[in-house]
Specification:
The chain is α/β, with parallel strands linked by helices. The protein is built from 8 helices and 8 strands. Helix 1 crosses helix 2 and helix 5 crosses helix 6.
């Protein structure tokens, strides 16, 4: 543990809790597969882990990270200045490109199969590609999730170039247009990668939203998703 990291942690704690007893701290850089930072309280000891991707971060960024972690742990307001400083740093091209590489190297992506019991995701992708994208999108890995997750119906993972869809859709009662909409939405993420506007991530830019409205059964699909 870097001595300056422990000092910064104590200073951040004192600002947030000026009259509280100073606890013991354990702060370390940890090889997460992404820019993750965690904190927990165990037997009166505060244990924080910061992504080793941030080991060379300047002191003001480390201070921002520890402030944010401690504020969350103790239910204190997060300083807007610290929040902006942290977002800007991790959103920089240097860090975001390294994070992308780390996800590829360290991240575990279990690819199952595109062929489900009812629907074949590769066939759906190819059909949508022809109908809406002139066949110009290169098909990423298509896979059903192992479980029937309802909290994440579908996502595009750029680090592994994969579109993942929850198996909750691979059932006879699910209409094809609902599966098509999920895949179409993730294809738009493939076409319109996440970009930065200042320190903010732009996930659904205007062009994305406009093109999503071209899906003919959009409202019908959204209504069905509410029943999942």
């Amino acid at each position: 543990m870097r001595a300056d990291l422990l000092t910064i942690c104590r200073e951040c704690y004192r600002v947030l809790r000026p009259r509280a007893p100073m606890p013991q701290f354990g702060v370390e850089f940890f090889p997460f597969s992404n820019v993750n930072n965690t904190i927990r309280l165990r037997e009166g000891r505060v244990l924080a882990r910061i992504s080793d991707l941030l080991e060379s971060a300047p002191e003001n960024v480390l201070r921002a990270i520890l402030h944010i972690l401690l504020a969350k742990l103790y239910g204190k307001p997060i300083s807007p200045a610290h929040a902006v400083r942290y977002r800007r740093y991790v959103s920089s091209h240097h860090i975001s490109s390294r994070a992308h590489l780390l996800r590829q190297i360290r991240g575990k992506k279990r690819i199952e199969s595109a062929a489900g019991t009812v629907y074949d995701l590769e066939a759906i992708f190819d059909e949508l590609n022809t109908r809406f994208f002139f066949g110009l999108l290169a098909r990423p890995q298509m896979t059903w999730r192992r479980d029937h997750a309802r909290n994440s119906l579908g996502h595009y993972d750029p680090a592994h170039n994969a579109i993942v869809v929850s198996r909750v859709f691979d059932r006879v009662p699910v209409p094809r247009y609902a599966v098509e909409y999920i895949v179409y939405h993730e294809m738009l993420h493939l076409k319109y990668p996440v970009k930065l506007r200042g320190s903010q991530r732009c996930i659904h830019p205007p062009a994305f939203q406009a093109e999503e409205k071209l899906f003919p059964q959009l409202e019908k699909a959204k209504q069905f998703l509410k029943t999942i």
